[in-house]
Amino acid sequence: MMNVTIGQYFPGDSFLYRLDPRTKLILTLALIILVFISKTFTGFALVFLFVLWCAFSTKIGLKYMLKGLKPLFLIIALTFVLNLLLMKDGAELVHWGILRITEGGLRTAVFMAVRLILLVLTSQVLTLTTSPIALTDGLETLMRPLSRIGFPAHEISMMMSIALRFIPTLMEETEKIRRAQMARGADFESGNLLQRAKAMVPLLVPLFVSAFRRADELAMAMEARCYRGGEGRTKLKQLQFHRQDAVAAAAVVAMYAIMIALNALGVF
Amino acid sequence: MASVIEVRHLTHVYMPNSPFEAKALDDVSLTVNEGEFIGIIGHTGSGKSTLVSHLNALEKSEPGTVFVKGTDLGDKDTKLTDVRREVGLVFQYPEYQLFEETVEKDIAFGPTNLKLDEKEIKHRVRAAMELVGLDESLRDASPFNLSGGQKRRVAIAGVLAMNPSILILDEPAAGLDPAGRRGMLELIKGIHQSGVTVVMVSHSMDDVGKYCDRLYVLAHGKIALSGMPAEVFLHGAELQSMGLDVPECAKLAAALRARGFDVPEDAYRRADVAAAILKHFGKGGDAQ
Questions:
Q1: pTM attached to this predicted model
Q2: Distance from A14 to chain B by nearest Cα, in Å?
Q3: CA nearest B159 in A: which residue?
Q4: Residues of B whose CB is below 8 A from A177
Q5: Per-residue pLDDT at B121
Q6: Cβ-Cβ contacts under 8 Å for B85 (sequence gap 6 or more)
Q7: How many CB contacts within 8 angstroms connect chain A with chain B?
Q8: Are residues A120 and A249 in the same domain?
Q9: How far apart are CA A154 and CA A141, in angstroms?
Q10: Is residue B24 a contact partner of residue B224, using CB atoms and an 8 Å limit?
Q11: Is residue A39 domain-resident?
């Protein structure tokens, strides 16, 4: 339970780390859209290589990143198989009883699988190289124009950073309570679904009690430091675009140009 | 004396082969004999909590490293419920594990998990409440409405109700005021006198010095010192370099010894040191 590391910020220093969080957020979104507009294998290969190169440049270690894909393996495999078997389009490749695999089906299946992998990998590069604080800071700045139409940009980003901040704390707490109840003979692993759900009560009640207690304490601590929402609040770290942000943006724009060309040419 | 807990060359590494790898225990060996009151002392992060988790089989150990009453906890065939029935573990701030509607039901959680019959459970709950000094009238109260000290007593009663022959407490007095602290330690002393082997984890030298028969000092995952309190407290400088302290009276005794006064080396309790000082003056000492 303590070994959840997917997408957890990994302290380091490289080109991607130094980018402005806003740049990273926008470019990640752009790359994900790019993955979905690609219609050719060459296009996918291009994005794939680009994301892989980004991943390499973080110096985090690819093995560690691929570990994050593991929980999604089942979903990826399922979409692949469903697309492969259910899409009927183009020439028939295999005919085996009621199973028919067509060229179009194979293509869609591979495309979907690659898309999902790229989706996870790209967002992982973002969250691994951006601290939660920088991430929510960037989000708040990006959403600020919306606050004019009444969208609570500051409040949402504050809630997000608090939630992110407390995930590890609550996980640690869960583990502690789980052990304490196990020491009292609680059994979380065996029994049918109903029994297991019931076994969660001794875990969930103390967890909720402590979460509310923490929320209370946090609110008090924030008020003691005169927190009263985003109005007129200044920042210690002002976000600023640098040359490297322009370089990164240019790279992604170039990717778009190539992708559109590839789609138009209809390369394999 | 028969040993009830034996730890042999236990090493524990958290998240091995990852960037977050951390060695919590490094070649730790210790013995707890039946009926003893053992103190395990160490600074925050010295591996104390990991060690006690091993004693209750909450952490999986390698075969041949941890034995409780001769049973190898690393053995696949060892039934963990049997181990947990034998070894009661009270965690730090145990009051945060309370969850039931009434004190009685919460204390009954452990015995119910042992699948005892209702009469036996009722009997055990009453006995455990009495042992921790909770009034009968609190039986139907909600544990969430009690004071901090009372909550902790309920939590300890919840472990005692499983009738363990060995009780391990992780910082039982943490966060209590001086009176609550004294009360808690006296309570543990009472449990020990009722025939339970006690292992108490603490970072307070005064507490372990006052109550424990034998001490193990843990530093950076290793056993740095062990022995009777008097022996351990002779290593004042070493203890201080580990971020620990010696009891005030042991400090006084050491300072007097350094000045050439006749204070026996095993004097670290208040009464012993006071007796040595009185003896000195009774002789008609010349030091004023």
A1: 0.74
A2: 17
A3: A184
A4: 96-97
A5: 94
A6: A185, B114, B162, B163, B164
A7: 64
A8: yes
A9: 9
A10: no
A11: yes
Instruction: Find the range with the poorest average confidence among A81-95, A244-258, B207-221.
Output: A81-95
Domain boundaries, chain B: 3-246, 247-288
With CB atoms and an 8 Å threshold, state whether B99 touches A202: yes
Would A144 be classed as within a structural domain? no
- In chain B, what residues touch A184 (CB-CB under 8 Å)? 84, 97, 109-110, 113, 158-159, 162
Clarify whether residues A101 and A185 are in a common domain: no
Contact list, A3 vs chain B (CB under 8 Å): 15, 18
Cβ neighbours for B206, distance < 8 A, ≥ 6 positions apart: B247, B248
Rounded Cα distance between A266 and B69, Å, is: 74
Mutate to test the interface with A, among B12, B99, B124 (most CBs of A within 10 A): B99
Chain B residue closest to A63 (CA)? B18
Q: Do A106 and A210 have their domain in common?
A: no
Number of domains in chain A: 2
H-run or E-run covering B9: strand B3-14
Residues A93 and A6 in one domain: yes
Residues A210 and A194 in one domain: yes
Q: Establish if A147 belongs to a structural domain.
A: no
In this predicted structure, what is the pLDDT of residue A88?
Answer: 76
- Alpha-carbon gap: B226 to the closest alpha carbon of chain A (Å): 27
Is residue A52 located within the same domain as residue A111?
A: yes
Of A64, A177, A201, the CB nearest to B97: A177
CA distance B99 to A78: 40
Q: Which residues in chain A have Cβ-Cβ distances shorter than 8 Å to B160?
A: none
Q: What architecture does CATH give domain B3-246?
A: 3-Layer(aba) Sandwich (3.40)
H or E segment at A210? helix A201-224
ipTM: 0.82
Residue A155 domain flag: no
CA distance A155 to A94: 55
Same domain flag for A52 and A25: yes
Two tokens, residue B58:
């909450």
Is residue B37 a contact partner of residue B198, using CB atoms and an 8 Å limit? yes
- Pick from B56, B81, B99: CB nearest A201: B99
pLDDT per residue as tens digits for the range B225-235: 999 988 888 88
B141-150: pLDDT as tens digits: 999 999 888 9
Residue A63: domain span = 1-130+238-268
Q: By mean pLDDT, which of A126-135, A145-154, B19-28, B275-284 is the weakest? A: B275-284
> Are residues A265 and A218 part of one domain?
no
Question: For residue A205, which residues of chain B lie inside 8 Å, CB to CB?
Answer: 99
